Amino acid sequence: GSAVAVSEEIKAARAAWERGDGLCSAMLGEEIWEAVNWRRAIFLFSYINAQLARKEQGSGEGPSDDVFDESIRCFDLMLHAQGPIASDRDDPAIWQADSDGQHEEETARMFYHGVYSSSHLRGLKFLAELCFLKWEHKGKKRVDAEVAAVVNRKFVHVVRHIIPGAGWTADVEYDRVLQVEKALETTVYSQGLDVKPTPPAAGKGKTGDGAAQSGKKKKGSKKKEATARARAAGRAGADGPLP
After folding, report:
1. Cα-flanking dihedrals φ and ψ of residue 141, to 5°?
2. Cα 183 from Cα 225, distance rounded (Å)
3. What is d(CA 241, CA 152) in angstroms, rounded to the nearest whole number?
4. Which residue has the higher pLDDT, 213 or 43?
């Protein structure tokens, strides 16, 4: 059935990752590989913004395609340091206010999108901005517009639908989606993003901020801790250093 096909597809994606980028993650360890790519990506992100500022002042030509691509690649490697991300295979239309396909629980949805910690959510935020800037400043190509729309939609979806009220905001990213849609003459990427999720029933769905503090080591507690950290980081501000 379809479930078996999806399972086989996931296994194949994991095997391909282990033969490719996963080799570095295995050799260095996931945390070190994430940190290496984070540092390089942030450096290039800062360089790109400095070059764009110079261009606006009339004293430079702006960053090259290669610099944009390398920074985007580094953020992507950081986000995939633990393996393939399930939602990469999706039609973004299935990312709804109350569910992501078969996933309805907050932590499962976060992991489904590769958001294992506040660092990953920050990485996704920076990646969304970079993809938009590349489209905006490097010829407004259709392929770049589509990538920018999907990545910004994913960030808005995570913030508005999965962890609403956690302190993160996604208004800028939502406006980017609308801007790109206007250029593409479509509305498919923003559909549903302004829909508020259904408040969870008591004891269901949401992972409370103190859920990971239980003295018992229950199955899934690490996932709950990661979700709680992402929510706490949102309250503290999204631009802190990598933990």
Report:
1. -75, 150
2. 40
3. 21
4. 43
CB contact set of 5 (below 8 Å; sequence gap of 6+) = none
Tokens of 95: 């990312």
Using a 10 angstrom Cβ sphere, with 0-12 exposed, 13-18 middle and 19 or more buried, the burial of residue 11 is: exposed
110-126 pLDDT, tens digit per residue, is 999 999 999 999 999 99
- The structure's pTM equals 0.82
Distances (CA, A) of 155 to 12, 27, 58, 81, 224: 26, 30, 33, 18, 20
3-class DSSP state for residue 100?
strand
**CA gap 70, 75 in Å, rounded:** 9
Q: Are 215 and 99 in contact (CB under 8 A)?
A: no
> From CA 193, how far away is CA 9, in angstroms rounded?
28
**Token pair in block for residue 239:** 């631009």
Measured in whole angstroms, how far is the alpha carbon of residue 66 from the centre of its chain? 22
Report the C-alpha gap between 158 and 164 in whole angstroms: 8
Alpha carbon 110 to its chain's center: 9
Long-range (24+ apart) CB contacts under 8 A made by 217-220 are 220/107
- Single-letter residue type at 37: N
Q: Give the position of tokens 């990598």.
A: 242
Residue 140 has pLDDT above 70, yes or no: yes
pLDDT at 210: 37
Instruction: Name the DSSP class of 200.
Output: P
| C-alpha torsion angle, residues 84, 173, 179, 199 (rounded to 10) | 90
Q: Which helix (H) or strand (E) holds 121?
A: helix 118-137
